[in-house]
Amino acid sequence: MSVAFISNSDCGRHDTGWNHPDHVGRLRAITRALRDDPTLFERVEQIEGRHATSEELALAQDGGYVAEIERLACAGGARLDTDTVLSEGSWAAATAGAGCVFTGVDRAMTDPAARSFCAVRPPGHHALAARAMGFCIFGNVAIAARYARTAHGAERVLIVDWDVHHGNGTQALVESDAGIHFVSMHQWPWYPGTGAADDRGLRGNVWNLPQPAGLAPEHYIETLERGIDAATVGFIPDIVIISAGFDSLAGDPLGGFTLEPEDLAALTRRLVERAAAWNGGRVVSALEGGYAPDRLAAACMAHVAALE
Question: In 3D, which of 210, 211, 287, 299 has the Cα closest to residue 250?
Fold first, then answer.
């Protein structure tokens, strides 16, 4: 069994400014925490992920939108919406972010026990087919699910999203594909205002689990596990892809959930156990939110250790 920490130095080129919640210090805190844990550092394989091509991004994104993002970045950047910044280095960062998740999928589909955590930015689960949203430019996890289907012939993909915000972009990008099941547990009411429990997607392949803030961690864990169980009735996934949003941690400035690093580690272990029974253990995790860098870094290390 091999657990990899996959990233790409270009992810640091996405320059949002230090006052933006998704600043480069998030990734620096994570890599510093890994370096400062010699036991985990020695156990985890560190891999430089590749870049996604424009053609690969178009598996889920509109091709014209992809070309426009490249053009705007080459022209020096732009503000894509109120929350989403595009800098000169953002094209390299965004293509690296998606490509790192592809690298994780390649590993897992070659060796089911080769699990990965992809430390990437910008995040992806709010990105729509032709529009950036909520810090997100490309839908890293949604595109990776399509990639698993097209490049590796995966018949069934399960996406589990525990970010405190609803993965509206992921839902929009995968809900027309019955071979992809999407489970999202998120705070409600909260940004982006989507993800009602009765919204099952175009093909009935979406399980939205809106939850109030401030509940006991056990409630969130049990709720997400019930959603995963419901999404896999008669649907045995060939690979599990996690949208690992650590803004579901207690104290995050952009959320009101109460999870601790050990709670997310427990969820990770339970998903790994399920995946072992489903497909030999294929799990790929990709960073989404998490805006208290020290807390984020501690939770990421607990998550990576639990992937073993």
Answer: 299
| The pLDDT of residue 1 | 58
At 138, list the tokens. Answer: 């490309």
Please count the other Cβ atoms lying within 10 Å of the Cβ belonging to residue 74: 10
Backbone angles phi, psi at 276, to 5 degrees: -60, -40
Predicted pLDDT of residue 118: 98
- Closest Cα to residue 165, out of 230, 118, 119, 210? 210
Position 226: which residue type? R
Q: What is the pLDDT of residue 177?
A: 98
Q: Which of 243, 120, 255 is nearest to 189 (CA)?
A: 255
pLDDT for residue 35: 97
- Eight-state DSSP code of residue 80: -
79 bridge partner residues: 85
The whole-number pLDDT of residue 187 equals 98
Domains detected in the chain: 2-306 (3.40.800.20)
The phi and psi torsions of 291 (rounded to 5 degrees) equal -120, 15
Structure tokens given for 172? 């929009």
The residue type at 191:
Y
Specify the pairing of strand 180-187 against strand 206-211.
parallel
Letter string b/e over residues 259-291, b meaning 16 or more CB atoms within 10 A of that residue's CB: bbbebbbbbbeebbebbeebbebbbbbbbbbbb
Low-confidence residues of the chain: pLDDT under 50: none
Cβ neighbours for 39, distance < 8 A, ≥ 6 positions apart: none
Which residues have a catalytic role annotated?
Answer: 126
Give the per-residue pLDDT at 206.
Answer: 98
SS3 label, residue 133: strand
195-236 pLDDT tens trace? 999 999 999 999 999 999 999 999 999 999 999 999 999 999
